[in-house]
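> @MW can you paste both from yesterday?
MW: sure, first one:
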Amino acid sequence: MPETTHTVLWTMSDRAFPRHFRNMEGFGVHTFRLIDREGTSRFVKFHWKPVAGTCSLIWDEAQKLWGRDPDFNRRMMWDDIKNGAALEWELGIQVVEEKDEHSFDFDILDPTKLIPESLVPVVPIGKMVLDRNPDNFFAETEQVAFNPANIVPGIDFSNDPLLQGRLFSYLDTQMLRLGGPNFHEIPINQPVCPFHNNQRDAQHRQTINTGQASYEPNSIDGGWPSETPPSDDAHGGFEPHHERIEAHKVRARSESFGDHYSQATLFWNSQTDVEKEHIIAAYTFELSKVERPWIRERVITEILPNIDLELARRVGENHGWPPRQPSRRPRVSWAAARWKVIQPSA
C-alpha cells in the first residue's frame, strides 16, 4: 500500500530499536481540536518527548539482546522503576489555527503525515512520570481500555477520517474484549473523579444506582438524573464544536490525501549516512523474506524510487533488480517548498 510508505520507512530505520522505553518518543497520528472558553477551535497534535532523549540500538545489538531476552525493554523499565529511576516524558502540543489549516503542502488531517517541528514548534504543557510498577499485572495492565472517544472538556474531534473510524471501532472492540458495555467500571478504567452517565444494567455492572429512572424528563424521581445545568464554569453536557461546512458529503478519498512519498523523502533526507546504510540493510533483509518475487520487485521499482533513487538503486542491486525512474513523483517538491513558520498562540 503506497499510503504506508512513510510509516514503513520509520520502521526500517533505527527508530524501530529503542534502547530503552525511556528513550522512546511518542506522537499521535491524529489531529484533534482544542476548544477554548469562547468556543474558538484550533487544530492540535499531541507529542510525548522523552526527558532522557531519544536513543536507539543498531541491528546487531538488537539481535543479540532480543535473542537472549525478548522482553529486555520491558524488564529494564520494570527494574529501573523498582530501583527508583523513574521514566519521564514531557507532554507537548502543536497548535494550528483554523485559518492556517491549508497553509501546508499536505493535509494536516491525513494520518500518514506529521507536521514538521520547524514549521509548528512543539510547546511543552505537562509531564508524565512512571514511578510505580503494577501491583497486579492483569488487573492494572491487561484490562486497560483505550478509547479515543473518551475526551475531557476543551478537546474535540476533527474530520480526520481514520480518527472518525476509531471513534466507533475502539468502543466496539473494548465491549467485546472486556465482556460488555460496563468495561469503564473496571477499577483500572474508572474515572478518578465522581461521574454520572445515567447508564444502567447490562453485563458486569459495578455501580448500584438508586431510583427508578435513568432518563430525563421524568416524573417519578423528581426529574433526576439531569444534565449538569449551564453556569459560568460549566456548559452542561458535552457539546461538540459547531463547525460550519459547505460541501458535498461523498464516499471518496480526498485528493489532498494523494501524496504518499514526500514526507518519506523528508525523513530519508534527515538521516545521517550511517543511518541511511542501516535503512538500506533493513529493506534488503526484510524484502528477502518476501516469498512472491513480483511483490518484491514492485517495492523496489515502484515504491522506493519515489522515496529516493539511491535507496532504490542500492536495495535493487542487492536483490538483482535494475533501478527504475519513479513511477509517480511526489505531489510536492519538499526541497523547493516555501513555508512560513506557524507560531503557537499565546
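MW: second:
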Amino acid sequence: MTRILVATDAWKPQINGVVRSLESVARALYEFGAEIEFLTPQDFTTIPLPTDHEIRLALASCRSVEKRLDGVAIDHIHIATEGPIGFAARRYCLRMKRPFTTSYHTRFPEYIATRTRIPESVTYAFLRRFHNAGCGVMVSTASIADDLNKRGFQRLMHWSRGVDHRQFTPAKAEAFDLPRPIFLYAGRLAPEKNVEAFLELDLPGSKVVVGDGPSRRALQAAYPEAHFLGTKTGDALAVQYASADVFVFPSRTDTFGMVLIEALACGLPVAALPVPGPLDVIGTSGVGVLDFDLRAACLAALDIPREKARAHALTFTWANSARQFLDNILLAKSADQCCLTASPGLSG
C-alpha cells in the first residue's frame, strides 16, 4: 500500500474546504491501495491567528517537524498549505532531497490584500518560490491553473473535488417557516468572502446565512433582517441547502468553492459572479447564473430546475478526486521532475 504523508496547517476544528477535501480524499484513497497520514496543528502547540482567532497557528519548528518526519515510513510527502507546518516540511524535503508535491488551495495574495496593505505581487512572489521547489502543484480548476501559469508557477497538476451524494441530497428538504423565496449563503464570514455583496441586495423573500467567522458580529449588526444560523455541518448543512431556493456565492477569491457542489447536490441552483471557481464548477452547465449583477443572477436562478442542479453535482465524486490526487503523485515521482533546491528567502 502506498503511504502518503500530508503536511497541513489547516485542520480541525477549522471548518473549510481544505479540511473537508483532505479528509474526504483520505477516505477515498483506500479504494486505490493508498493511505494518508496527516501532520497537523494537533501535533503541536498552537496560538490563535492575530486576524482570526478561530484559526490556530502551529508552533512547528523545522527541527520538531523533521523529527516527526524522520520517524514515519512513508512513500511520498504532500504539502497542502503554506503555513508553519508546510514551510518546515518543505525545508525537510529540500534538505533530505525527498520528492514532494504541494497544492494551492487558497488565494492568499487576494485574501491578504483585503486585510493589509501588502501588494498581491509580493505574496505571489513568495508563493511562487514556495511551490516551484517541488515536483508539482495541484490546483482545483483550469482557471486557477491558467492564472498561476501566467504568474510563473511551474508543473501545475489538476486535482478536482467531490461531494458525498448520499449526505447532500434533495431528500433532506424541510419546510422552513420563512417567507419565500429563500436565498442562502453558506461559508466563512470573513472580509475576503464578500458576503456584504449578497446581504446588500434588494431581494424578495428571505436571506439566510450559515457559517461563522471574524465578520459575523459586524454583518449581523449591519443586516438585522437576514437570518444568521451559525455553523452547520453534515446533515444539518444539507438540510439548509435542500430547503432553500437559491444558493448565493458572492466570493471573488475562492479557488473552487466546495459549497457550490454541495448545494447543487441538494438540488439548489446557484447565483454567483463570473469569476474563477464558479466559472469552472458552473460554467455553461445551466445549473447556475453567473453575472456581475448578482441580484439579476439570484432572480434568474429561481427558474432553474432542481433536478438539473442535482444531475450536474453527480459528475463530481471523491473517487475521481482521489484517483487524480494519486495519479499526480505517481506522475511526479516517475517523471523525476522535482527541483529539490531551496529558493531564495525560503531555505531557512
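> thanks! The chain has two domains: 2-162+318-335, 170-313.
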